[in-house]
Amino acid sequence: MILEFIVKNFASFKDEICLSFEAKKKKIQGHETNIIVMPDGTKIIRFLSLYGRNASGKSNLIAAYENMTTFWLWRPQSSSMPINGFVPFRFDTETVTKSCHFELKFYVDGLKYWYLLDVNSKEVESESLYYYTSTRKKMLFDRTTIEGITRIEFNNITDIRPSSLLKKEINMRCLSNMSVMSALMGVNIDIKPIAAVKEWIRNKVAPFLSINQPELGYTQTFIDKDDNLRDHLKSVMKEADFNIVDFVTKTRRQSVPKEIIPFIERNERIPAEERAEIVSSGGFTLPTIEFIHSVENERGIETYPLSEEYESSGTINLVELESALYIHSKQGGFFYVDEIEHSLHPALIKYVIEKFIDEKDNDAQLLIATHYTPLLDEVDSLFRSDSIWFTDKGKNGSTSIYPLYCEKGSQRFNSFQAAYLEGLFKRLI
Q1: 78, 99, 306, 422 — which has fewest CB within 10 A?
Q2: Residue 356 · residue 333 · CB < 8 Å
C-alpha cells in the first residue's frame, strides 16, 4: 500500500510536494472500510480524490507516479538511449538543469519501504531502497552514477546481502540510464525484502487509466480468465439499470509493428506467455466483446448483441472502470484514474466510489483526479475529510498541493462544494 508520494522538480512541481495516504490522527467515525491498519500501527487511507483548476497540476502528479513506476521496468538497449518522461520544472534557470526527484513510502506484506530516485533525461543520478524493522531503516541498495559509471552498494547484513557473483551481475546489468529495479527484475534473488518488492511491482503497481478515450483493455484481457468478473459486470449492469444482461467474447488477430516488439519482449508487466507469442508470431490474439441487450416488445422479451463500436462511451467507461477496479481490488493493488467523471452519469460516479470504499477486507487503493465537485458534499457521509486534496498553481508557474483537513475554519462551511467553487479554501490556508 502507498503511504506517501513525494515529487520535486518535475513538470509543474518546482518545490517538494507530498501526497499522503496516511489517515490524520483525529478519529473519524463511520469509515472503517476506508482505512487499513499496518502492523506498525500506521493507518492508511484506501481512497483519495484530487481536485484543482485546469492546468493546475493534477495530471502532472499522476504522470509523475506513472513515469516513475514505468521506469522501473524499462530496459534500454544501450546507455546512450535518452530517458523519456522526466522533464524538470522549466520556469526557473536553476531547476531546468537539475534532476527530477521522487520518493515513495509504501508497504509490502506489512513491511515499510522507502524508495528514492533522482533522474534526468540522460541518467539516474542516484537511487536507493530501504526497508524498516520497527523504527529503524535498513539499506537494501544505494546507487550512484558518476561520469556515466553506475555503482550499486548493497547492505552487508547477512540476511539481506546478495552474493558477490549476484552483486557483480546486477552492476553489469544496470546501465546508467535504467533503474536498479529493472536490473533486479532480470535476476533470481532470494533476499526476501527485495523479492517481495519485485512481486509487488509485477502484480500490484497498476497502469494509469484515463477514460477520455473509451476502450475495453482490462475487460478484454480478463473476462475470459475470470468467470467472477463476468458475473460482477452483469451485476453492475443490473444495478446501474442498463438493459445489458450478458457479454459474449470473440477473438481476432492483432499484429504488432516490428520496431515495438523488442520493447514488449523486455516489458515485465506483460505475462511471459503473451510476450513469447508476440515475439514468435509478430502479433497476439485479442478478444472482442459483444454486449447482450435485453429488450421487451410485442413479442415478449428478446436479446440482441451489440458490438463495442455501437455502445455509448458511458457504457464502455463504466464497464472498463469496473473491470479495472475488480481486478486490482482482488490483487490488492494501487489504481489511479484521471477525469473519472468523463461520460459517466453523476449517480454512477457516486455508485462506483461508494462500492469501492464499502468493500471489506480489501487493501486496494484508488486515487482519482476529477473536476466533479458534487463529491465534495459527500465528505463525512461517503468518505473521510482526509480523502480530499487540492492542487494550486502559483504565479511562478509551480504547483502546490494541500489537503482539505488542513483548511483552517473549513468546519463552518455548510457546503464544501460551494466553498471550493468560490475559491474560499485557498484563502484560508
Answers
A1: 78
A2: no
Single-letter residue type at 114: W
> Closest Cα to residue 147, out of 115, 122, 127, 165?
122
153 compared with 252, residue with greater pLDDT? 153
Predicted structure pTM score: 0.88
334-338/365-369 β-pairing: parallel
Share of the chain above pLDDT 70, in %: 93
Kindly state whether residue 416 falls inside one of the protein's structural domains.
Answer: no
Range of the domain at 281: 216-329
The domain total for the chain is 1
Provide the grid cell at 58: 493534477
Q: Is 292 inside a domain boundary?
A: yes
The 10s digit of each residue's pLDDT in 271-317 is 778 888 899 999 888 778 999 999 999 999 999 999 988 999 889 98
Helix (H, G, I), strand (E, B) or coil at 102: strand
In a domain, 193, yes or no: no
Domain assignment present for residue 188? The answer is: no
Task: Check residue 428 and give its pLDDT.
Answer: 45
Helix (H) or strand (E) holding 262: helix 261-265
**Could you give the CA distance from residue 165 to residue 217 in angstroms, rounded to a whole number?**
41
